From TrEMBL:
Species classification: Bacteria, Pseudomonadati, Pseudomonadota, Betaproteobacteria, Burkholderiales
Record-linked Pfam families: Phage_integrase
InterPro entries in the record: CB, DNA_brk_join_enz, Integrase-like_cat_sf, Integrase_catalytic, Integrase_recombinase_N, Tyrosine_recombinase_XerCD
All residue ranges annotated as the Core-binding (CB) domain in the record: 63-152
Official protein name in the record: Site-specific integrase
Compositional bias of kind Basic and acidic residues: 382-392
Cross-referenced CDD domains: INT_Rci_Hp1_C
Region spans: Disordered: 361-392
Species: Comamonas suwonensis
Length: 392
């Protein structure tokens, strides 16, 4: 229970000392100039203590945002997500430079919102300056939000995250650029003529599976499983963007490309497969994948394909799946997405499939109009039989 005591100092000024004692909790005390505010604080703290949500203000006051972000980088980001340290490390440093001096007790949604707006106003590029894309700003906010969540839930440095009240920039639907049938044919021809002996195979694996560039280039032969005929049948991805292990079936052109690559590998290794080697190794850097950027750009120029990135091969796979009638969950499973939000961008490509589904429903449930009895002169269907008088 809370007790409030009125105190008067030597100058005659009144203050109100609040003490809360609840069994199982250390005493909580605070002094206020206003009795009404003292009562409000006592009610709030008692409720939070009973519900296990109370965090003393002094704890949040002892830690700065800089300390929180640096601790997050060292404890969470570096050991658990080392591949993201370059990008997210830069994002964390940006926030440290802007709000690192604030204590966790003093940081507010308004302060974060101010620097969110600064982030959105940031321009880059000297010749043609462009503002930072909203999607990039969202990523900056995401890493900050996760750091606050860890500080709240695991470290108990503050009672709640201020990010809950910070509005995120609106992001337009993601880019969907995919290869037409003609473009795919031209690109296949161009990669086949490339001086890089791996480029054509990488293209076929990418287009047949929808795997990310890093997932393809970091594949090792131990990650490729064979079927009963000795052909490549499954790529096991140990490290993916969302951190989950994933198996990707190998079929069609992707399977053929890896089968040929495996045969060539065995010829140079006395008929055996070195399971620890990369599928697409560099000839100059030990245990590193081959560099494809220059040869990829050359192939695009030869194929006369503009406004196309390697990552758009992943969009191409997803678009082809949608046009073949694959459902959202099916596309998400192929691409390795945790939710359906990312695959909604391909929904407009599956209209033919939706039409087919509606047509089948109309035929089976509503009846085909061509099967209806001929209409009479009144425009109503002619009925030659008596109405059904049954009770069904």
């Amino acid at each position: 229970m809370a007790s409030i005591r009125e105190r008067i100092d030597a100058s005659g000024k009144k203050s109100y000392h609040v003490q809360i004692r609840l069994k199982g909790f250390p005493p909580q005390t605070q002094t206020f100039d206003s009795k009404s505010i003292a009562k409000q604080w006592a009610q709030r703290v008692e409720t939070e203590l009973r519900e296990g949500r109370y965090m003393p203000h002094a704890v949040a006051q002892r830690h700065t945002v800089k300390e929180m972000l640096e601790t997050y980088r060292d404890r969470v980001l570096t050991p658990l997500k080392p591949k993201r340290i370059r990008d997210q490390g830069q994002q964390l440093q940006w926030w440290i430079d802007r709000i690192g001096r604030y204590s966790l007790a003093d940081i507010t949604p308004a302060i974060i919102g101010k620097y969110r707006d600064e982030l959105l106003a940031t321009t880059f590029g000297k010749i043609k300056p462009k503002k930072l894309a909203p999607a990039t700003a969202v990523r900056y906010l995401a890493v900050l939000s996760h750091a606050f969540n860890v500080a709240v839930k695991e470290w108990e440095w503050l009672p709640e995250s201020p990010m809950a009240k910070v509005k995120k920039p609106k992001v337009a639907n993601g880019r969907v650029r995919y290869l037409t049938t003609d473009e795919l044919g031209r690109l296949r021809t161009a990669t086949a003529l490339s001086e890089n002996r791996y480029l054509a195979a990488v293209l076929e694996v990418a287009i047949a599976t929808g795997m990310r560039y890093s997932e393809i280039m970091n594949l090792r032969w131990r990650d490729v499983l064979l079927d009963e005929r000795g052909q490549c049948s499954l790529a096991v991805l140990e490290e993916t963007k969302n951190g989950e292990r994933r198996g990707v079936p190998l079929t069609g052109s992707g399977q053929s490309a890896l089968d040929a690559l495996r045969q060539a590998h065995m010829k140079t290794n006395d008929g055996r497969v070195n399971s620890g080697l990369l599928l697409f190794p560099s000839s100059t850097k030990k245990d590193k994948p081959v560099e494809l950027r220059k040869s990829w750009e050359t192939a695009l120029k030869r194929a006369k394909i503009e406004n196309f990135r390697f990552h758009d091969l992943r969009h191409t796979t997803a678009s082809y799946l949608a046009m073949e009638g694959a459902t959202g969950p099916e596309i998400a499973e192929v691409l390795g997405h945790k939710d359906l939000q990312m695959v909604k961008r391909y929904a407009h490509l599956s209209k033919a499939h939706i039409t087919g589904v509606l047509s089948r429903m109309n035929q089976s449930r509503l009846g085909d109009p061509s099967d209806a009895p001929p209409s009479s002169a009144t425009g109503r269907p002619a009925h030659h039989d008596k109405p059904d008088s049954g009770s069904d």
